[in-house]
Amino acid sequence: MSHKKANLFTYDHPTCHNFSANAHEALLDKNLQTQLSRITREGFQQKRFDAIHRLDEGEFDLLRDRAQEIKTDALANLDVYLERFEQNVTAAGGKVHWAASANDAREIILKICQDANAKTVTKGKSMVSEEIGLNQYLEQNGMRPVETDLGEYILQLRDEPPSHIIAPAFHLAKSEVEDVFRRHHGDLDPARDISQPAQLLNEARQVLRGDFISADVGITGANMLVAETGTALIVTNEGNGDLTQSLPPVHIALSSIEKIVPTLEDASTLLRVLARSATGQDVTVYTTFFTGPARPADLDGPKEFHLVLLDNGRSKTLGSEFSEALRCIRCGACMNHCPVFGSVGGHAYGWVYPGPIGSVLTPLMVGIDEAHTLPDASTLCGRCQAVCPVRIPLPELLRRHRVKSFTAGKAGWLTRVGLRLWSFVASRPKLYHAIASFKVRAWKIISGKRGYISYVPFIGGWTNTRDMPSPQGKTFMDLWKQKNK
Amino acid sequence: MTNQTSPHKKTNLKNKTVALFATCLVDVMRPNIGFAAAKLLTDAGVHVVVPEGQTCCGQPALNSGALDDARKVARTLIDAFAGYDYVIVPSGSCAGTVVAHYSELFKDDKKWKPAADDLAARTFELTTFLVDIMGADIADVSYDGVATYHDSCSGLRELGIKDQPRKLLGGVRGLELTEMQEADVCCGFGGLFSIKLGEISTAIVDKKTDNIIATSADTLLGGDLGCLMNMSGRLSRRGKNVKVYHIAEVLAGMTNIPPIGGPDGEDKK
Questions:
Q1: Cα(B269)–Cα(B262) distance, rounded to whole angstroms?
Q2: Which bin fits B190, alpha (ψ -120 to 50), beta or left (φ > 0)?
Q3: ipTM of this predicted complex?
Q4: How many Å apart are CA B34 and CA A480, to the nearest integer?
Q5: Residues from chain A contacting residue B188 (CB–CB below 8 Å)
Q6: pLDDT values of chain A reduced to their tens digit, one per residue, 485 residues
Q7: What is the pTM of this model?
């Protein structure tokens, strides 16, 4: 039973091209608007601010500088670190699988599951798995993937994609979660009280317990990959990742190549900026490091450990003008502070990664034809760059996409002809000033003494909701000349 | 982020000549801001000229990805302001375009890159120049009202403009400054964004105007006419009576004309 909205994207059917229409829907969605205000402004922004101010003055900026250096070095020597990582995973008894494309990654994972005769596959939260549409693929091939992160579990029941990279179901109100639990947990007492978040969490835990124990394969993401030790690590707040990783006989960690860091020391520096930037915690509740499968003396842990390393266009991005986007550690601070994301939420962006970083990554992953709308979905206010823990110049990268899409003819003819005409005139000062003088006088006559006009042709986007202040009556250049004759 | 603040503060510039770049928006919409900027600079002791060859900084094209168009207009500005010691702009956004983006815009152009860098080094936003470079004080100016100040994004994050306007406003007699929540959050203008994605722009400016209204200030001030027109337009459509002025108008004591978007009164200029 699916309750998802008809216009929601899937990994292979992006709706980025419909950004304006998606945004229109989102602005009318009262539940979403309440959640947006609660989660972004009052929640994440304030918590991040407080976390930074619990540190010494200037300490967070020093950490950010170091985090940027670490990621820059890791990307500059990616081949070296990835090979070192593979050697160390292998030495620890695990196996690294290289996946060039989303399809490669899906097939590799399915094969591992089939070899394990898997039926139930538990999953920790992984945006990379959303990027490759893993759940749909496993289902099509007879597996039963079960999301174990609370937010992801709710979304799986609703058949919806995440709307935020660290708070996947933040767009839903408590009551919507209660509804979906009552629909899907039909064998539980209908009279039970699950109106409070703690009760909802508890119910999900009870339902999921059986799956944790019976799962044949556990799939997690990995927030970082440590080259010097062959260790992968995940950060969670629910502990579900640990159960997914350690209980089933086979553990698959799905990650992407830019998650590599050289050393454990580097990983710990990045952890210090990650949680503070994301949820405003000093550190997440659980930080789990795993190196290979269980060793003989270990009391628990998987018998097999597989690490699937996805490229999916990243190595191409590495050598491009967008390479700085690969520093991203997926904290979500850019979207939490973005006025556009804060108005329309994540689904409007039409693909897996929303917000400013999504508007940079999505065109690289699904193509500019589909996603040329996203780089325009920004006022270029720069708040994203200001809060980014690895100082990605997001506005500049968005501008570069705009250049690419303008060059490819994606801008409407009105914009293109308009800009050409404007630049022709604005590079001829005498002509420009003559036209400006005329335009201003005419405009002033039309608008009269009221001080503004309520409708201006061609800029309905402005005047539908805002008055247009009237000009004073003459241009500055004319008045200045008059006065300084 | 580029920080314009010069290490050798409070340079003695008495009798030097500075060139005023009024900006295309001020030229067309509100010359009063240009005259106010000129008065502030003159009062601070420099000689002000207004080069006739000026038009626009090219930002609309730059932010649309139309780099050829942006360069064409930028070259016009570079030519118009060649040779002046300082170029002063009553807008953080237009100054930011020159200071933070011209170098990148001409990075592959051997001929124009040095001139672009040179202009960038000489260009300052008005309040930054008055405070950080000239060490100017505001005296003998009064404004009767409670004002709140919006930090425009480009000025704030590309040029580090935050304290300068507040310091100058502190010298205005009778003016009480009250800070709004999220003064440093975007107003939703974003140039062509405000037209192309008008609905989202409106949602953003609604939050901004909520914050303005919550202060009970009777006056909204800022350093960028584009943002001020956006906020004024929304306040007016929502039926809110808040007077909107550019900071230069208040600092120069030139609020004798109707506020931005306000009706013409008796005392027209």
A1: 14
A2: left
A3: 0.95
A4: 9
A5: 339, 379
A6: 344 566 799 999 999 999 999 999 999 999 999 999 888 777 999 999 999 999 999 999 999 999 999 999 999 999 999 999 999 999 999 999 999 999 999 999 999 999 999 999 999 999 999 999 999 999 999 999 999 999 999 999 999 999 999 999 999 999 999 999 999 999 999 999 999 999 999 999 999 999 999 999 999 999 999 999 999 999 999 889 999 999 999 999 999 999 999 999 999 999 999 999 999 999 999 999 999 999 999 989 999 999 999 999 999 999 999 999 999 999 999 999 999 999 999 999 999 999 999 999 999 999 999 999 999 999 999 999 999 999 999 999 999 999 999 999 998 888 899 999 999 999 999 999 999 999 999 998 888 888 899 988 888 899 999 999 999 999 999 999 999 87
A7: 0.95
Domains of chain B: 17-133 (no CATH), 142-251 (3.40.50.11810)
Contact between A125 and A221 under an 8 Å Cβ cutoff? The reply is yes
For residue A48, tell me if it sits in a domain: yes
Residues of chain B positioned with their CB less than 8 A from the CB of A24: 199
Put simply, the answer to whether B50 touches A449 (Cβ < 8 Å) is: no
Residues of A in contact with B257 (CB under 8 A): 472
Q: Across the strands, what pairs with B195?
A: none
Count of the separate structural domains present in chain A: 2
Picking from B65, B204, B258, the nearest residue to A399 by CB comes out as B65
**Structural domain range at position A250:** 16-315
Question: Chain A window 331-350: which residues touch B at a Cβ cutoff of 8 Å?
Answer: 339-340, 342-344
Query: What DSSP designation does A191 have?
Result: T
Using alpha carbons, list the distances in angstroms from residue B247 to B111, B212, B242.
Answer: 37, 16, 15
Within-domain flag for A392: no
Q: How many Å apart are CA A287 and CA B155, to the nearest integer? A: 40
Choose one of A300, A315, A330: the last residue of a domain: A315
